[in-house]
Each structure stands twice: as C-alpha cells, then as structure tokens.
Write a structure and sequence with these properties.
The protein is globular and about 30 Å long. Helix 1 runs parallel beside helix 2. It has four helices and five strands; from the N terminus they run βββαβαβαα. InterPro entries: MlaB-like_STAS, STAS_dom, STAS_dom_sf. It holds the Pfam family STAS_2.
Length: 123
C-alpha cells in the first residue's frame, strides 16, 4: 500500500493510503486545526469505511482526540464511517479515563479494558 503524506511538520505526520489514515508524532493544539483540515480534505465525501491508525501517536492529548472526533463527524455527514480504529496505549487510556471509548466507533473496547488503570498518585 502506497501512503501519501498529507501533513508533516515538527515531528507530526499524517499519511493516507487506500481507505486508511495514519497519524504519528505528538499532535497538539498548535497543529490540531490543520491536521483536522488535512484529514477532512482527504476524506472528502467518502461513503465507505475508513481505518484510522493512531498507534504512532507518542503522547495522550485531548487535541488528538478532538481531531479524531472531527474526522468521525465529517465521515458521518457524508455517509461514511470508521471501520477500524487503532489507538496508542496512551490514547487508549485517555479515551477510557475520559469516557470517550463508547463514542469511538471501530475501537475494540476490550483492548482498552486490558490496559492497566491510569495512576493518579499525588506526592
């Protein structure tokens, strides 16, 4: 599968190929709007299932989850859907802690629950 680079800046890369988006690096609120826009342009008016791979995202960020939710909303508006969603361990924990796992279609919730609980220790 040949991947096309849609965004590549400051260690954050968004690539697309066939029916798959792949994001890696450490997205944050400085580049979230541009990432969301790049993904929306590639998604266009897709009416099929798309696979989204966020396993290469290095850190848990609500900015990344916001981008993902924007892509999901865009797909739904055009009759498409997320067929498969893969999250990095850090994003999986963030989705579970924030209660978003039920809003993320294509995500295997069993994978999240297998993760150790997030520690909120204070010193």
């Amino acid at each position: 599968m040949t991947m096309k680079t849609l965004f590549d800046r400051e260690g954050v890369t968004l690539e697309a190929g066939d029916a798959r988006l792949s994001l890696s690096g450490q997205p944050d609120f400085d580049n979230a709007a541009e990432l969301a826009d790049s993904g929306r342009k590639w998604l266009g008016r897709r009416e099929d299932g798309v696979s989204i791979d966020l396993c290469g995202v290095d850190s848990a960020s609500t900015a990344t989850l916001s981008v993902l939710l924007e892509w999901q909303r865009h797909l739904a508006e055009h009759g498409g859907h997320v067929a498969h969603l893969a999250l990095s361990p850090a994003l999986s924990r963030l989705a579970a802690v924030s209660g978003l796992e039920n809003l993320l279609p294509g995500l295997n919730v069993a994978e999240i629950s297998a993760e150790p609980p997030l520690s909120l220790e204070t010193s």
